[in-house]
Write a structure and sequence with these properties.
With about 270 residues, the protein is an alpha/beta fold. About 45% of the residues lie in helices and about 15% in strands. Helix 3 links the parallel strand 4 and strand 5.
């Protein structure tokens, strides 16, 4: 049965730099700010597009939206059309990585190359349990306990201790966040499963994953590596679920080297067999 897909919404999108375009997709409950430490360095040689996905950040949350991946894809394609971008390098983080994989499979002509960070081929029982725990803590223990749970699950413990300023800023940002959109997208994420399709992916793919990711186990990165023809993998030690935040310099360098290595003509032959 086809996924429900409401009409596209106009995404709020930050842009920086000039050159071949790179599209950065945040994960569930995030927004464009998760890429703050990556955007400017990448913008030194590329045009970087950093949208807030529907119902996140400053982008609208349409009434009745199911937040299906078909809807999310439609929004991104509408953004690329509005910006007259025939093809982009797509970088997706967490559920944004799920969305990036879907885009590369469904619209390979629009994706020059692909980078997935902290993602997987499917949403397994462990990841579902983590998300359910977040919702339960928020509902039963309140906002402060919810933020503490997020910090424990999302980041490597030593990183949090060394970056309490980020933890405080994250708490203040989340205080004003409407969780309706993220929770709806979370329902769609629960059924995400591309295991039967990844072998047909022909877009050049680079996988980045934190070894100590408590949300999506790093074993999933290895599974992606063997499932996607020609895919490359880099694991970051002592790193949790959000490498662009925890290891911004290394993440930026890895993305830039991958995109530059692929070259401007790399996407011309991208296709799904």
């Amino acid at each position: 049965m086809p996924e429900a897909a409401a009409p596209p919404v106009e995404l709020t999108c930050k842009s920086e730099g000039r050159g071949t375009p790179i599209l950065l997709l945040h994960g569930m409950g995030g927004d464009h700010t998760v890429w703050n430490s990556v955007t400017a360095p990448l913008g030194a040689r590329h045009e970087v597009l950093v949208p807030d996905l529907r119902g996140h950040g400053r982008s609208p949350a349409p009434p009745g939206s199911t937040y299906s991946f078909a809807e999310m894809e439609g929004d991104v394609l509408a953004l690329l059309d509005a910006r007259q971008k025939a093809q982009v390098d797509v970088v997706g983080l967490s559920a944004g990585g799920f969305l990036a994989l879907r885009l590369a499979l469904d619209h390979p002509d629009r994706v020059r190359s692909l980078v997935v960070i902290g993602a997987s081929s499917h949403c397994d029982n462990h990841t579902k349990a983590v998300a359910e725990r977040w919702a339960e803590v928020y509902q039963t223990e309140g906002f402060d306990a919810y933020v503490l749970r997020l910090l424990k699950d999302l980041f490597y413990p030593d990183w949090v201790e060394a970056h309490m300023d980020y933890a405080d800023a994250m708490k203040e940002r989340l205080r004003g966040v409407d969780l309706k959109g993220p929770l709806q997208w979370g329902l769609a994420v629960r059924t995400f499963d591309l295991r039967g399709r990844l072998g047909r992916l022909r877009v050049p793919t680079f996988i980045i994953h934190g070894v100590d990711d408590q949300v999506i186990d790093s074993a999933h990165a290895r599974l992606l590596r063997v499932s996607i023809p020609g895919a490359q993998l880099r694991l970051f030690p002592l790193t949790g679920h959000l490498p662009p935040v925890e290891k911004p310099t290394e993440t930026t360098q890895a993305i830039a080297e991958w995109v530059d290595r692929e070259g401007p003509a790399a996407g011309a032959a991208a296709a799904v067999a």
